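Standup notes, structure subgroup. Blocker cleared on the iron/sulfur cluster input:
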Amino acid sequence: MGDTPPVGGDVDGICMGCGVCCDGTMYRTVDVAADDRIELLEVAGLVFSTRDDVTSFRQPCSAFGHGCCSVYDGRPSVCRGYRCLLLRRHEAGEVSRDEARSLIARTVALRDRVRSGLTAYVGTDDLTSLDGLYRRMMAKFEAQPDPAAARREHSDLLLTVVALRVILAREFEPRDSKSHQPDRADEATPTP
Ligand code: SF4
Ligand code: SF4
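Run returned:
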């Protein structure tokens, strides 16, 4: 695994060890451009699908591991241009490197707690975005004889999901970019 950051705009090593824009924490799918060399990315395990003339791959991205992008030189153009809000604020001098790294450490810890809690509850592997796992958990709650009791039983996990969503919305999600695609509302909800 190369020692490379996961996105296009790393500054001061901010992205190293983060990757929440690649690992299914922030996004479910990433759209690629017509001139991206997807055949090279397929070799790395990325699986593409095309709908309404838009080609995309799902997250967690198969090229992401150990905090790095394994196809850094050939990553899609959308990845090259991506800057999360935190990275932009650091570039603008609004957030120091230490502050950014501290925020990333807290976010990654939350991500790990959420992923492991959701994965344990829905009983699946981790090759699904956090949102996909969350939807499966909610569907599983609804399938219980007493959904409210099931939710109460897992209230700590639900609160951790909320905490993660708040930190992502406030600190990471670009206000003006659709370069990585968030949820597709019409995407089929997986069955639990
Ligand atoms: S979410 Fe931001 S800081 Fe983290 S890897 Fe992506 S661009 Fe870098
Ligand atoms: S190709 Fe995958 S791991 Fe690399 S920057 Fe894009 S989403 Fe991240």
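Discussed briefly. The radius of gyration is 17 Å.
Next: hand off to the docking folks.
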